[in-house]
């Protein structure tokens, strides 16, 4: 598997490692779906395989992070049983299967216990926070404490989809690795490479859906979003006078089994509006930007506070209606 | 997936599983950490191993090994099964196709397994420092210090027993074990065993201390201690306990051990302890404060509680200095007095605000320091 768009980050990380100037905290910043968490995991696999008891030497002439998926350390990481590895993420509720709203301070404290004991298998302690945006306030402060006084041989990876909102004190402790959205051309050719059997239409729609994020394309690859996608296209172009499309979507997406499609929809709605806004200018663009802002707000609060799903879908559909008309309209205004 | 086949005596299996499974956390969200690793060797031995990521216990037992191999199964299940099997029976363990068959007499169990590669094993590599200590000495070191170990997580560097070597002016080279929570300190000093010279200072975590103490109950003779700056290993006969250490700096505790306390009280520890315990009955839960008025030939213990009234008791003791009043946390004082085995305990006092030194005598390896309370 190739890691689209990781090249610069990988090189920066390896330069630091090879030069013996390993920073203790790395902020992996950029939009969702670019593989920041995957990069953190690759880097962790690399680090934990270095200087382990089995292979005592550290490779300071490394040219890639690849090749450690099958190491002894990686087996333990995947089993959740590496004594020097912790991953902080929103926990899944055992009964409902849904994710917690945030990464709790207790989780951060439990992970910090790793820092107060010596290492036993690997030389490096590695903690991945996926994502730092999900930390509750007290959790962020607890993490900050560890970032300020990290014990030797401890490396943090903080994934952030919205790094501007992190505590400045956390940001300033970290070395920044920027992950940028992939251009549509590069994305399309990568998709053709990854999915040789896919038709041109499929590639085009996936490229649109991805919005620069490979993971999003991969995620939509298997989920049955085709009908949702068609509905949204119609919503945008023809409107929905009798609310039949809107009703259909709110019903189908709020079903219990449709959780994945629902979450995809929450990401898709603001993306489509921002695309429409970019295609427009003048007054139409301003209106679309307002709608995009509103849609982003609804979508992100839908994740944080889990209100009624049908209602959320309904609200977002209203915002998506007639977006292409507005774009066209604005062009007329501009022409007139 | 590994295959393995071996037959073990039920009693041997049960006893060893009892040892290793005690490190397995009861509520475990990581499946592999609930498991025991079973490693059957061609030389007729089986290793059982369990871990909680901070420490690991390995027990080696004799078995008839038909097919050498390694597998992991639920420690708790296997222990419960072994416990319920018939006394004196033989147990066949046979692993194949990601299942392990446990067979004994007419009973058959088929247990799910997890691959050995998922099981974290602390390598039994070379640890720089190696020495032996009599099991009894280790028992003494632990029992006399562990009550003073801090449980405060923010002061993690106090959450264990500090082991270090030193050259004492009077006693020559020694090994010292110390624990403190900031209110009291306990220290045991023993002659430095051969091989301990130059060892790094280490802080042995509380959980390791507790597991070691359990294993020591069943062992006599010598315990082999191996350590580096990051790991410690105790070998007790068939059992090997390996643990991470606390990654921190233990404070320079010598500063708090008073050397100039010139007021000496000698007292019967049993009578003293009983007296403290009695008057402390009415002490408030929060402070547990008990006052000692020390005068020629006696100590007057008293407690005054706004809710519960007052209590006092006189205990005879040997004392010739100027009279002094000092307060202590009854719980802490009782903890220390419980360690005294002889007929006399010495309290070296200075004033109501200064740390007090408590010991059986200067020949005794154990020494305690207790901070006073305002009463």
TrEMBL record, chain A:
GO MF annotations, alphabetized: DNA-directed DNA polymerase activity
Enzyme class of the recorded protein, top EC level: transferase
GO cellular component: DNA polymerase III complex
Keyword Metal-binding belongs to the record: no
Pfam families membership: DNA_pol3_delta2
Domain of life: Bacteria
Record-listed E.C. numbers: 2.7.7.7
Biological process (GO), any one: DNA-templated DNA replication
The keyword Metal-binding belongs to this UniProt entry's keyword annotation: no
Keywords: Nucleotidyltransferase, Transferase
NCBIfam families per UniProt: PRK07471.1
PANTHER family, A to Z: DNA POLYMERASE III SUBUNIT DELTA (PTHR11669:SF8), REPLICATION FACTOR C / DNA POLYMERASE III GAMMA-TAU SUBUNIT (PTHR11669)
Protein name: DNA polymerase III subunit delta
Organism of origin: Flavisphingopyxis soli
């Amino acid at each position: 598997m190739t890691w689209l768009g990781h090249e610069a980050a990988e090189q920066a990380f390896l330069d630091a490692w090879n030069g013996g100037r390993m920073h203790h905290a790395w902020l992996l910043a950029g939009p969702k779906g670019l593989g920041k968490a995957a990069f953190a995991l690759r880097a962790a696999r690399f680090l934990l395989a270095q200087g382990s008891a089995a292979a005592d030497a550290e490779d300071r002439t490394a040219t890639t992070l690849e090749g450690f998926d099958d190491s002894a350390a990686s087996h333990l990481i995947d089993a959740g049983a590496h004594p020097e590895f912790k991953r902080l993420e929103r926990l899944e509720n055992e009964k409902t299967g849904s994710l917690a709203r945030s990464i709790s301070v207790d989780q951060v404290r439990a992970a910090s216990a790793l820092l107060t004991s010596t290492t036993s298998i690997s030389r490096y302690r590695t903690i991945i926070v996926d994502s730092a945006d999900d930390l509750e306030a007290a959790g962020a402060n607890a993490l900050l404490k560890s970032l300020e006084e990290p014990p030797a041989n401890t490396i943090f990876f903080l994934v952030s989809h919205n790094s501007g909102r992190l505590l400045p004190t956390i940001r300033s402790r970290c070395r920044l690795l920027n992950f940028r959205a992939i251009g549509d051309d590069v994305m399309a050719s990568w998709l053709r490479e990854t999915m040789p059997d896919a038709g041109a239409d499929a590639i085009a729609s996936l490229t649109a859906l991805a919005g620069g994020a490979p993971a999003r394309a991969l995620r939509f690859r298997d989920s049955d979003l085709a009908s949702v996608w068609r509905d949204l296209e119609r919503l945008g172009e023809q409107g929905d006078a009798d609310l039949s499309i809107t009703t259909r979507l709110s019903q189908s997406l709020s079903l219990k089994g449709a959780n994945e499609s629902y979450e995809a929809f929450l990401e898709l709605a603001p993306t489509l509006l921002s695309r429409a806004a970019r295609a427009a200018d003048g007054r139409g663009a301003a209106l679309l930007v307002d709608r995009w802002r509103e849609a982003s707000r609804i979508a992100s609060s839908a994740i944080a506070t889990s209100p009624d799903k049908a209602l959320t879908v309904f609200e977002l559909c209203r915002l998506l209606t007639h977006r292409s008309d507005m774009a066209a309209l604005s062009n007329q205004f501009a022409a007139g | 997936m590994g295959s393995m086949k071996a037959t073990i005596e039920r009693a041997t299996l049960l006893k060893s599983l009892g040892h290793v499974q005690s490190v397995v956390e009861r509520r475990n969200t990581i499946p592999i950490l609930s498991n025991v690793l079973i490693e059957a060797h061609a030389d007729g031995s089986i290793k059982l191993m369990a871990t909680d990521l901070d420490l690991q216990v390995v027990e080696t037992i004799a078995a008839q090994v038909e097919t050498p191999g390694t597998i992991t199964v639920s420690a708790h299940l296997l222990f419960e099964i072994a416990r319920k099997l018939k006394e004196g029976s033989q147990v066949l363990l046979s692993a194949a196709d990601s299942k392990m068959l446990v067979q004994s007499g007419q009973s058959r169990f088929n247990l799910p397994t997890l691959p050995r590669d998922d099981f974290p094993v602390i390598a039994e590599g070379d640890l720089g420092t190696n020495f032996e200590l009599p099991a009894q000495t280790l028992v003494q070191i632990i029992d006399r210090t562990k009550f003073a170990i801090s449980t405060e997580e923010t002061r993690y560097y106090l959450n264990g027993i500090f082991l270090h070597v030193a050259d004492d002016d009077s006693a020559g080279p020694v090994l010292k074990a110390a624990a403190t929570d900031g209110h009291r300190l306990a220290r045991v000093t023993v002659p430095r065993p051969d091989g301990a010279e130059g060892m790094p200072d280490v802080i042995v975590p509380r959980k390791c201390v507790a597991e070691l103490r359990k294993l020591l109950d069943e062992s006599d003779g010598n315990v082999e201690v191996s350590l580096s700056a990051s790991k410690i290993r105790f070998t007790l006969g068939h059992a090997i306990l390996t643990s991470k250490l606390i990654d921190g700096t233990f404070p320079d505790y010598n500063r708090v051990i008073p050397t100039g306390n010139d007021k000496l009280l000698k007292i019967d520890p049993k009578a003293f302890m009983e007296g403290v315990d009695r008057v402390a009955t009415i002490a408030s839960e929060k402070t547990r404060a008990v006052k000692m008025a020390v005068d020629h030939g006696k100590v007057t213990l008293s407690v005054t509680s706004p809710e519960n009234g007052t209590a006092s008791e006189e205990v005879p003791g040997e004392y010739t200095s100027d009279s002094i009043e000092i307060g202590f946390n009854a719980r802490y004082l009782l903890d220390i007095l419980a360690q005294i085995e002889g007929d006399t305990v010495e309290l070296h006092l200075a004033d109501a605000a200064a740390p007090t030194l408590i010991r059986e005598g200067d020949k005794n390896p154990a020494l305690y320091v207790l901070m006073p309370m305002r009463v």
